[in-house]
Amino acid sequence: MFSVYFFENKDLVLNQLLKNVPSAGDEIKIKGRKGKVLSVATVDENKIYVQVDLEKVTKSKAAALTPLDKKKKR
């Protein structure tokens, strides 16, 4: 078992105990976000740092409110 730490830039995204370590170039899904493994670095015998590039979350804007929608309903 390996303790795998997933980093995006310098931010820790996730750490897991895994039997199989991802390799560079693998497609990965973390917290519902798709990404790609950039690099894998072994720190200790069982401690591995994985640098990932996750897709950016785009928030859709709500429909533009018209003046009638802004009125209070009674």
Structure description:
- The structure is a single chain.
- The chain is mainly β and 74 residues long.
- The protein has one domain.
- The protein is built from 1 helix and 5 strands.
- The protein has one helix at residues 67-70; strands at residues 2-8, 11-18, 27-30, 33-42, 47-54.
- Strands 2-1-5-4-3 form a 5-stranded mixed sheet, with no helix packed on it.
- A hairpin with a 2-residue loop joins strand 3 and strand 4 (33-42).
- It starts with a strand and ends with a helix.
- The mean pLDDT is 87.
What labels describe this entry?
single chain, 74 residues, mainly beta, 5-stranded mixed beta sheet, 1 helix
Which parts are unreliable, with pLDDT below 50 for 5 consecutive residues or more? Answer: none
Count of the domains: 1
Quaternary arrangement of the chains shown? single chain
Structural class by secondary-structure content: mainly beta
Average pLDDT value? Answer: 87
Count of helical stretches: 1
Task: Please write the string of helix (H) and strand (E) elements.
Answer: EEEEEH
- Roughly how many Å is the radius of gyration? 20 Å
Biggest beta-sheet profile: 5 strands, mixed
| Helical proportion, percent range | under 10%
Alpha carbon gap, first and last residue? 61 Å
